[in-house]
């Protein structure tokens, strides 16, 4: 479609209200990917693989990491083909249609609410272990800085992610080194496990690589240098893979599969000593905080985009939408209806299916009806129909497994 068509001009005029006011640096963009991915998932995957074992976990980290990066690049090309700054639900509406838009929006809602609920639960447990306060008070202490930076917007999120992500890498390096120097660490623990339980691990891993949602938000920050977007995605996902691998590797090799807690840093820190207990759980809080900002910010802007609420810098509207984003997860966390790992598991199940199908359809529509032909496009090898079919099939089969195992007909993962 020509850039001068009336359709493109009309759509752009209506949706350009979401344009960014402050750009992101390359490092801030990478940090947004890492910070969003390294949240509650990195704390739960060791426990989620407590029956399947580390090798099953590593297998899925490679497979899901590669497939997720590919679908993120589909979204990246689609955003670069679109003059207006649209979130995922907006891209789905333009290139797939109304049903696709609602499915994508529901996926954003389920994944975000599941994640933010897990962060409320996990932060309460961590601060209870660290400070002795009740879990509800601990969650409230976590909630205040989390919501505060979310209120300040994209640039504050990017800067916060950058500084805390650097700190997390330093803490992880120290903790991993201490683990391998500990005389009780045993590599044989990494070879244990039962392959029959490996399928449920897939869905928790799918949640860990959940940064597809923030690609359009990053595109807003890279609007002055769009070629940096795919590079930031690939670097961020590579760093994510490393961190998601070394944390459960260290936890399992130190404690064994039977002694891993659902929030892994609690058992990890206790095994290394008091200094490590505080360091590991401060890392865990930072991981939850950065992921909260990434997913919470994406959820907020998706609501603005889906319901055409105008600029997300309007204070009164932003405050109202923020209440919708941050209050329900806090209530759910203490309702007794959902556990820490299960919140991530079922969020990964539902959102994984949508995110395996929708980016493929969005890219197809963007190549047919986009406004711009960008300088960067996905390589032919990652857009081959066979690869797309494999992506869709894997996520659909894993969702079917989750449903059947929830009914008790197949083994659960933990």
UniProtKB/TrEMBL annotation:
Top-level taxon: Bacteria
GO CC annotation: plasma membrane
Coiled coil feature spans: none
Gene3D superfamilies: Amino acid/polyamine transporter I
Subcellular location field: Cell inner membrane
InterPro entries: Amino_acid_transport_2 (IPR018227)
Keyword Phosphoprotein attached: no
Pfam families to which the protein is assigned, alphabetical: Trp_Tyr_perm
Membrane topology: Multi-pass membrane protein
Transmembrane segments: 24-48, 54-75, 95-120, 126-151, 163-181, 197-215, 235-255, 275-295, 316-337, 343-363, 390-410
Keyword Transmembrane: yes
GO biological process: amino acid transmembrane transport
Keywords of this entry: Cell inner membrane, Cell membrane, Membrane, Transmembrane, Transmembrane helix, Transport
Protein name (record): Amino acid permease
Organism: Mangrovibacter phragmitis
């Amino acid at each position: 479609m020509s850039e001068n068509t009336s359709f493109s001009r009309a759509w752009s005029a209506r949706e350009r209200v979401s344009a960014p006011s402050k750009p992101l640096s390359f490092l801030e963009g990478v940090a947004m990917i890492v910070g969003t991915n390294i949240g509650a998932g990195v704390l739960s995957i060791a426990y989620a693989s407590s029956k399947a074992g580390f090798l099953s976990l590593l297998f899925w980290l490679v497979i899901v990491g590669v497939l997720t990066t590919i679908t993120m690049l589909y979204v990246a090309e689609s955003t670069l083909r679109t003059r207006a700054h649209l979130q995922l639900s907006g891209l789905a509406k333009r290139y797939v249609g109304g049903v696709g838009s609602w499915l994508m929006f529901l996926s954003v809602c389920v994944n975000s609410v599941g994640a933010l609920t897990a962060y409320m639960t996990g932060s309460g447990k961590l601060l209870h272990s660290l400070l002795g306060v009740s879990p509800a008070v601990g969650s409230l202490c976590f909630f205040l800085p989390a919501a505060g930076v979310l209120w300040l917007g994209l640039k504050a999120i990017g800067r916060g992610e950058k500084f805390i992500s650097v700190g997390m890498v330093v803490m992880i390096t120290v903790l991993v080194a201490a683990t391998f120097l500990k005389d009780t660490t045993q590599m044989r623990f990494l070879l244990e496990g039962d392959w029959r339980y490996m399928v449920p691990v897939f869905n928790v891993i799918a949640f860990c690589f959940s940064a597809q949602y923030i690609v359009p938000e990053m595109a807003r920050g890279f609007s002055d240098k769009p070629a940096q977007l795919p590079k930031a995605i690939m670097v961020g996902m590579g760093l994510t893979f490393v961190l998601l691998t070394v944390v459960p590797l260290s936890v399992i090799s130190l404690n064994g599969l039977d002694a891993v807690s659902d929030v892994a840093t609690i058992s990890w820190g206790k095994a290394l000593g008091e200094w490590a207990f505080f360091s590991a759980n401060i890392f865990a809080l930072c991981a939850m905080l950065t992921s909260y900002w990434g997913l919470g910010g994406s959820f907020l802007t998706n609501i603005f985009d889906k319901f055409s609420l105008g600029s997300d810098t309007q204070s009164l509207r932003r405050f109202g939408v923020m209440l919708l984003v941050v209050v329900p997860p806090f209530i759910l966390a203490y309702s007794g209806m959902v556990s820490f790992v299960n919140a991530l598991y079922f969020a990964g199940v539902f959102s994984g299916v949508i995110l395996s199908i929708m980016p493929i359809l969005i890219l197809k529509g963007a190549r047919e009806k986009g406004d711009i032909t960008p300088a960067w496009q996905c390589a032919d090898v990652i857009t081959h129909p066979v690869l797309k079919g494999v992506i869709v099939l894997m996520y659909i089969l894993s969702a079917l497994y989750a449903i059947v195992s929830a009914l008790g007909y197949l083994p659960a993962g933990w």
